Amino acid sequence: MVSLKDSHFDLFHLPAQFAIDDAALDAAYRTVQTQVHPDRFAAAGDAQKRIAMQWATRANEAYRTLRDPLKRATYLLLLRGIDIGAENNTAMEPAFLMQQMEWREGIEDAAAARNVDALDALLAELRDEKRARLERLGTLLDSGADQPAAEAVRQMMFIERVAAEVSAQIERLEH
Questions:
Q1: Dist. CA 119–CA 122, nearest whole Å
Q2: How does pLDDT run across 4-33, given as a tens digit for each residue?
Q3: Which residues of the chain form CATH 1.10.287.110?
Q4: Most exposed residue of 28, 49, 74, 88, measured as fewest CB within 10 angstroms of its CB?
Q5: Where in the chain is the domain with CATH 1.20.1280.20?
């Protein structure tokens, strides 16, 4: 029997690794949800309803975490005792810092020129960069290279923020 304290991977009977089978995760989630959905406990006592609600909440949180590759990587690192420290560890490789500056300049220049095409191109570049880094992240995590994986997660979080910024600029310029 799985306990509320077990890992998200344990909850869905999946191996604790970065590469997971999305279909298996989806099927396991549906199975757990049918077992713990609060509607199944409508006639139960308050204590059982509360426990069912805790399990349903836990299943939803676990599913959202494992479904998102970046959240899954962060969670996997936490299980291994590595806190990525995204809030207070902003040290990054010089090459990545230079790339950040180029992206920021690209956003500023395109926004100032009201050039949606340039922003679209930058967004595509960021998506490609994220995709490539995601593959590298999977390799790092599944080979146990946790510290480089933590840095890769921080870099990808930054890429996601920049991509969101670009999307917001596109939205602003199109309306």
A1: 5
A2: 678 999 999 999 999 999 999 999 999 999
A3: 8-67
A4: 88
A5: 94-174
Q: Which residue type does 98 have?
A: M
Specify the fold of 94-174. Monooxygenase (1.20.1280)
List, for residues 101-159, the tens digit of each pLDDT value: 999 999 999 999 999 999 999 999 999 999 999 999 999 999 999 999 999 999 999 99
